[in-house]
Amino acid sequence: MSTVSVVAPASGLKSRAAKTPDTTVTDPALVKRAVKAAALGNAMEWFDFGVYSYIAVTLGKVFFPSGNPTAQLLSTFGAFAAAFLVRPLGGMVFGPLGDRVGRQKVLAVTMIMMAAGTFAIGLIPSYATIGVGAPILLLVARLVQGFSTGGEYAGASTFIAEYAPDKRRGFLGSWLEFGTLAGYIGGAGLVTVMTALLSADDLTSWGWRIPFLIAGPMGIIGLYLRLKLEETPAFAAEVEKAETHRPKVPLREMITGQWRALLLCVGLVLVFNVTDYMLLSYMPSYLTGQLHYDETHGLLVVLGVMALMMIVQPFAGALTDRVGRRPVIAAGCAGFLLLSVPALLLIREGSLLAVALGMGALGLLLVCFTAAMPSALPALFPTKVRYGSLSIGFNVSVSLFGGTTPLVVTALIGATGNMMMPAYYMMAAAVIGGFAVWRMAESAGRPLPGSAPSVAE
Predict the structure, then answer these.
(1) Which residues, 6 or more positions from 57, have their beta carbon under 8 angstroms from its beta carbon?
(2) In this structure, how many other beta carbons lie within 10 angstroms of the beta carbon of residue 200?
(3) For the whole prediction, is pTM greater than 0.85?
(4) Which of 145, 238, 304, 427 has the greatest number of CB atoms lying within 10 Å of its CB?
């Protein structure tokens, strides 16, 4: 079979993927590099998430005036939450830009900003040294991180989806969330080891800086990998079709022109992120704060659940290629609807075995989403608006529903006194997610909208 290279004459963009008139033939080595580079950015984002969550008490002492420990902790998480407020703004900037100048360039920029924001936190002087300037600088660094994250997940999932052969998109996309879990375990595990090895004074005076400073070398490695990549075949073909002008779609068209797909995206991301933040972010606090469970054991259980999810993740991704995204996501929604209450009752029983079983069950159900969403979400949108529309839908849903999960559930428990609220909240999310799955089209084994069929070399 003769092939010709995909080249965009007016833009200079190119892809080494070969192309026949009707089919794109992908280079396996290039696909692997694309997956690694995309997953590393996600890993770095969640490395910071794990570090910040697990070292929050120490950060409160460093950056906020001494006094009430609860107020310090709330201030620390307030700075953490501020990043969620600017994520939609980042999505509205980086998403359309990615559809105009290319996925690879924008992902390189988001990697630089994420690494710089995280690294900068490790350099900020304490409140005792510069006073109110310390928490202000912390907030600025968090805003930089949040803004860059607004373009990260949608871009990374789009990048992998557009490089992957149609029949392996689920498996390859699942490695994006593998990076998420690896980053969180790495960050949380590092803080746990440091807490065990360092005295409280050493951790407060200098030890807390180490995890954040590690982001510098990680960012350089990630940036190198992303700069070595070529543009995706789908975007290069879109530029080629545009001939003398790069694709340009108004922001309004990315929203109003894709309103149905955006609503499906918001619903799918809602169930994905409510259950994700419930398990990985809220449950450690629920175990210690509401059930008075031993903090160390609670954290180790969560890390164990994430390790289990990492093992299952690639196999579940491959399963979505065989049976489809819809059945796997629907199974996750049905599981959370039917098993959230039994799982939480197990967790509330309090023994280590019961907590592990309850958390493990929720973790395996969550894999239905982490394995399928990176390939299902990009398939909702055509190539010319994929990065922009997905960034907007994803980040709006995360900011409104995912990132607020711990706060909302805590408020519901306080208002009702009902300790089963986490289960009811996950069940409600599962109903919304189930409706979105019912209305979405199956994408497994099929070309992305607006793209030619893609096969492995």
Answers:
(1) 69, 72, 73, 76
(2) 12
(3) yes
(4) 145
